[in-house]
């Protein structure tokens, strides 16, 4: 009897390995991506994360939670020239506007064609991941001050625009240099009306965003779009998940997140360094959107601190390759990658990339998974691509 169990074990191990490798029932996260490969990623030593300051008082726990269950996944926030808002894109593919306690949230714009059955909004709003590619997933948003138009970076449909009165968003661009955008992420508009935006990946859509990290995907790009000439230019390429983007107060440089490398980059637009990219600031975690305040300082929302498990995964490509071949859900894969409990981290930098302030909720008691920080009238408005609310922290 023992001999039979021994031989069964000997034959079952390679059989199990073959089933995992071949994935005949397409149960792995890379099902549908036969060309997936895991590239090496150069990582700084993990112990250097200890050098970053902490908020020992967990100040973000004093934040106020607004609009609970009224919005879902409000990643980016904007206010128009009349002070109305916030406006935000939510997970069912709409742009909503807060019109006060009497009217509440009203639909301002849609990405998808009117009447699409799969894109009917739910009450309360809920994710629609299975149909995101049809309904859209608006991420970064910003108003063009001169026209009142709202420009939208949609994960699936690229760069879009909608007029001051809202309605159906008009697509502008979804490819450059013969390569379509798989995952458009964020945008910023300069004083002259030129739009800068990020494409996190040309290979993997937002619904498979973890594959950009596990693949070491460096197809990310930073681009510009001129609404007058309709010219699209690629400014930077070969980036590991470029994400949030903003422009300095004087318009001389861009600052954008390179999420996969836990850093902010600076791209010079003017002066002797025009066209040159450099590291602006190293970060203790994975940055999402970055926004400039009225003083010309930069707020960066950090999705989570880098854990030892995520560092190991990024450092060793063979481990990433093995994991994505297992029959794991993306939720399980994300939990393995994060390797820590949900929390919130916000950092403020000056124009030289020096840390000015750190705000945290280390336990996630009140705030977690923040995606953007918009400073307005002494308050920090914080969006989240995952949470069903907006958080507001008063600095005074």
Automatic annotation (TrEMBL):
Cellular component annotations (GO), alphabetically ordered: endomembrane system; vacuole
Superkingdom as given in the UniProt entry: Eukaryota
Biological source species: Ceratopteris richardii
Gene3D superfamilies reported for this sequence: TolB, C-terminal domain
Subcellular location: Vacuole
Protein family (similarity comment): Belongs to the strictosidine synthase family.
Signal peptide coordinates: 1-21
Protein name in the entry: Strictosidine synthase conserved region domain-containing protein
UniProt keyword terms in alphabetical order: Glycoprotein, Signal, Vacuole
InterPro entries the UniProt entry points to: 6-blade_b-propeller_TolB-like, Strictosidine_synth_cons-reg
Location (main, coarse): other
Domain annotation Strictosidine synthase conserved region: ranges: 185-271
SUPFAM superfamilies the record matches: Calcium-dependent phosphotriesterase (SSF63829)
Chain segments annotated as transmembrane: none
GO MF, one annotated term: hydrolase activity
């Amino acid at each position: 009897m023992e001999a039979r169990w021994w031989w069964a074990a000997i034959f079952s191990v390679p059989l199990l390995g073959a089933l995992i490798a071949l994935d005949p029932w397409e149960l792995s996260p890379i099902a549908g991506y036969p060309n997936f490969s895991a590239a090496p990623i150069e990582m700084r030593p993990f112990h250097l994360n200890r050098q970053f300051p902490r908020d020992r008082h967990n100040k973000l726990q004093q934040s106020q939670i607004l609009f609970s269950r009224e919005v879902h996944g409000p990643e980016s926030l904007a206010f128009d020239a009349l002070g109305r808002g916030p406006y935000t894109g939510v997970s069912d593919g709409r742009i909503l506007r807060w019109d006060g306690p009497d009217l509440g949230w009203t639909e301002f714009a849609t990405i998808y064609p009117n009447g699409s059955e799969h894109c009917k909004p739910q009450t309360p709003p809920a994710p629609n991941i299975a149909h995101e590619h049809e309904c859209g997933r608006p991420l970064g948003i910003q108003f063009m001050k001169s026209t009142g138009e709202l420009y939208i970076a949609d994960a699936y449909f690229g760069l879009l625009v909608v007029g001051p009165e809202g309605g159906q968003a008009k697509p502008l661009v979804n490819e450059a240099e013969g390569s379509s955008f798989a995952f458009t992420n964020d945008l910023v508009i300069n004083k002259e009306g030129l739009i800068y935006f990020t494409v996190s990946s040309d290979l993997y859509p937002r619904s498979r965003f973890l594959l950009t990290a596990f693949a070491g995907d460096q197809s990310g790009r930073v681009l510009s779009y001129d609404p007058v000439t309709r010219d699209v230019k690629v400014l930077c390429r070969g980036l590991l998940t470029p994400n949030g983007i903003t422009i300095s107060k004087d318009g001389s440089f861009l600052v954008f997140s390179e999420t996969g490398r836990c850093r902010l980059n600076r791209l010079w637009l003017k002066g002797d360094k025009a066209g040159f990219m450099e590291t602006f600031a190293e970060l203790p975690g994975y940055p999402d959107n970055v926004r400039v305040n009225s003083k010309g300082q930069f707020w960066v929302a950090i999705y989570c601190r880098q854990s030892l498990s995520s560092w190991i995964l990024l450092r060793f490509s063979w481990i990433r390759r093995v994991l994505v071949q297992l029959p794991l859900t993306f939720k399980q894969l994300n939990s393995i990658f994060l390797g820590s409990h949900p929390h919130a981290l916000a950092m403020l930098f000056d124009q030289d990339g020096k840390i000015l302030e750190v705000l945290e909720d280390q336990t996630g008691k009140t705030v977690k998974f923040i995606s953007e920080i918009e400073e307005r009238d002494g308050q920090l408005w914080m969006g989240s691509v995952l949470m069903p609310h907006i958080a507001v922290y008063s600095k005074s």
